[in-house]
Amino acid sequence: MEVRDALRAEVLELVGRGARAPADEEGFERLALEVFRYQFAEAEPYRRFCERRGRTPDSVARWTEIPAVPTAAFKAAPLVCGDPGDVEVVFRTSGTTQGPENRGAHHVRDLALYEASALVNFQGHVLPDGARLPMLVLGPTLDSAPDSSLTWMLERVRREFGANGSAHFADADGLRLVELQAALAESEAGARPVALLGTAAAFAHLLEAMDERGRRFRLPPGSRIMETGGFKRRGREIPREEFYKMLVDGLGLSAFYCVAEYGMTEMCSQFYDNVLRERARGRSPALRYKVVPPWVRTQVVDPETLEPCAEGRVGLLRHLDLANLDSVAAIQTDDLGVAGVGGFELLGRAAGAELRGCSIAMDQWLNAQR
Amino acid sequence: MAERAALDAFWMPEQPRQAAGPFGDSGLEVRERAFGPGHIPMRIPTFTPHTLRELLAGLRQKRADLLAERPVIDIIETIGRAARRLTTPGEQYYDELAGILPELTGYSRPMIEIGLERMGAGWKADGLRAALEDEFGVLEVLDDFQPRPTGGMQRAFGPPLTVHVFSGNIPGVSVSSLIRALCVKSASFGKTAAGEPYFAVCFARALAEEDAELASCLAVGYWPGGSEDLEAVAFSEAGAVIAYGSDEAVGDIACRVPPRVRFLGYPNRVGAALVSRNALSRKAARQLAENAARDVVTFDQQGCVSPHTIYIEAGGAVSPLEYAEYLAEALDGLSREIPRGAMTPGESALIHQLRAHAEIRGATVLASEQGTEWTVIVEERAQFEPSPLNRVIQVRSVDDLGEAVSALDKVGAHLQTVAIAGKGDQVKALAGQLGAVGATRVVPIGEAAWPTPHWHHDGRFQFMDLVRFVDLETGP
Prior knowledge:
Structural class of chain A: alpha/beta
CATH superfamily of the largest domain in chain B: Aldehyde Dehydrogenase, Chain A, domain 1
Helix content of chain A: 25-40%
Mean pLDDT of chain B: 94
Distance between the termini of chain A: 51 Å
Largest interface: A-B, 42 and 37 residues
Shape of chain B: globular
Number of strands of chain A: 18
Number of helices of chain A: 10
Oligomer: heterodimer
Strand content of chain B: 15-25%
Order of helices and strands of chain A: HHHEEEHEHEEEHEHEEEHEEHEEEEEH
C-alpha cells in the first residue's frame, strides 16, 4: 500500500495548491500515468477492460491514452481498487427512471480525497471573494439521503463554509418552501447576503411557489446561487439563459452570482462556472464556461469513434479525475460539450442517450421510442 | 454550392397555381422548412382547421364521384403500374427517391435501394389481388353483393375517407397504407412524419400520371404531430384513422379519435429470433448467421419486425458463441455492403455505454473495431433485452428454447415477429407456443424484415379491418 499512500499524498498536495493553481502539465501527466498503473493493478474489471483494448501501463505513454470507462459501467460491477466491501461510502445515482437494480454505484474508499477536491473547488468558484455566508441548502441533510453524492457534498460544504443561519430546507416530504421564503425575506430585510445551494429543479419549485404568491425578493449584494442539473418545465428542458433570467428576476441577483455546478456520482471532483471567480477579480466575463481544476483534465471526443475531436467541435466529454484515486480516474460521459480555453462549455446530455447504456428494461425502451 | 430548389412535400387534388403563396381555390399557403439529416428544403402547406376541413370534404366528394364505383381489379392494376415506377431502377421516381431518401431518413443509399425494390414486390397487382382474396375470399365483394355460403349476400364498403398518421422510421410504410385504403375504395389523407415526408407524395404523383382520377382521391401533407386543432378536424372528418408510431404517440391519437370513427393503431413492436440446436449443423450455421445478420441490418432495426434478441439453443454442432462469431463476421461484411445510417451523438453514446456495461458485467462483446457500426453481446441468460437499435443484437445462449418462449412471454403485447431456424414439426410446435404468448408472425430467419403483401400486420386484417359489410338477406 506504499504506492497508494504515496499517490494519495501527491493528489492531496496537488488539490491543496488550490483551484487556481497554474496547470503543471508534466506533473499531471506523470501522476496520471502512475494512478493508471495503480488502478490497472488493483481494479480487476478495469484491468480487463484495458487489456481488451490493448492498453496497459507499459503501453500507455500519455494521459490521453488512458482508457476511459463509460459511466454505465458503474452499474455493472464495483469499479474500485481492492475490496469493494472495504470502502467508506458507496454513492449511488438517483435511478429515478431506472429502478434500484439499475443504479450506478461509486465505491469511495477514502472520503478525504473527495472532500479535499469538493471543498477547494467550491471555495475557488462559489466563494472566490472569501465571503462567509449563511448557506441555505435546497436539499435534505445526509441522514435522509445517505447515498447521494450531491447531498453529501452540500452538507460538507455547508459545515465547512456556512455562517450562522445556515440550514437545509428539505426533508423526506420535499422542499420546505414556506420556511425557505421566510429565510429569504429575513436576508432581504436584514441586508444579510446568503448563498443558496441546490438542484435546478429545486430552484424551479422555489420560483413556482414565489410566482403563486406573487412574491419576489431583492437579495442583498453578495448573495449567490449554486445550482446543478437540468431544469425542466412541462416536459421541456429550459435553456440555462432563460433559467437565469428567472432567477435574476425573482431573487434580484446578478447572473454573475449564479454559478452552475456540473458533477456526477462517478466522479469525486466537480466543475463550476467561471463567472463568479472572474467577477471577484473585477471582470465581467462575456462567456460562461466550466472551469477544469488542476487535478482534472477534460477532453471532447467524437461520439462515434471516441477519438479526440477537432478544436471547437461538439462531442462527448471525457474526464480524467485524479481525485478518483481508488476507483477509475478516466470517465467517458454521454454529456455533450465544446472545449475552450480554460475549460469547456457544457451542452447537456446527448439526446437519445437517456437509457444510460445498461440492460434496458422494456418499459424504458418504450419510453425512449418517440 | 448552388442552393437546392425546395421540393414539394405535399400532394393535393388541386395543385397550387403558384410556386409559393396562396394556392388554388383552397386558400392554402405553402412555407419552406428543412427536413432530415441532409437538411433538405421542402415546401409544406400551412393548413388551418377551415382549409383542412374543406380539403377533406373535397376528397370525400372525389371518392363518391370517381372511386366508389370503380371495379377493384381496375384499381389494383393501376396501383401496380404506379408503384412499379417507384420501385424499378431506371424509372424517374425510383431514381429521385433513391437520391433523396438517404438525406431525408439518414439510411444509406444501398439500404434505401433494397427497401424500394423489396417493398415494390408487395405493391404489384398480383400480390394485392392475392392479399385481398386471402381476406375476402372473392375480390368482387368490394364491387357488388356476393353470395354467402350460409345464404344471403354481402358487400363490403370501405370508409369514405381514411386519415393516416405516418411514422418516419421505415420509408414506404406510408405508401402501403395509402394502397390499403385505395383497395377498399376509400379516399385518403396522409399526414406525413418529419422523418420521412416525401415517399407518399411521390406515390401520389406516379399514380396521377397513370390515372389522374384515382390520384385526385388522395392528399398528402405535413404538420407537426400533435397539432390538436388540425387533428381534431382530420379525425372527425374521417371514417377511419390509421396511426403508426410509438406507444405514446399512438395512444395519444387513440384518445382523440371520436368513438364513431374506426381507429387502427400500430404502436411499438419488437422481434426476436430462435435457433434450435437441430438447425445448428456445421454446414448450416454460417448461412443462418448471415440470414440473421440481414434481419438485423435491414433498416438498422428501426422496424417493428426487427430482431432484438437471438436465442441460441446450446448443444448443437456449433456452440452459441461460435454462432455469435459467425454473426459478427456477417455483420462486419454487411456493414460494407449496406452501411448503417446516420447516427446522432446520443445514439452513438448509448451504444458505447451499453457495450461497456455488458463488458463489465461479464458478457462477451463482439463489436466493430472503429465506432459503433455493429455490436453482438453474448450471454447465458434467457431474459429478452430490447436493443437500442442501429445494429446492436443480443445473443442469448439457452439450454432449451422453452426458456426463450418463457422470456418472450414477458414481452407480451409488444412482441410481433419471431424468426425461427428449426427442423420439421419443431417449427410448428414453437410457432404455436409463441403465438400463445403474443407473437403474430413466425418466419424463417432472414425473412423477418420483409412481410408478404398478405401478412396479418400485428395479427390483424389489413383490408377487412377497414371495411363495413352490408348483409343482404333474401328471406326464408
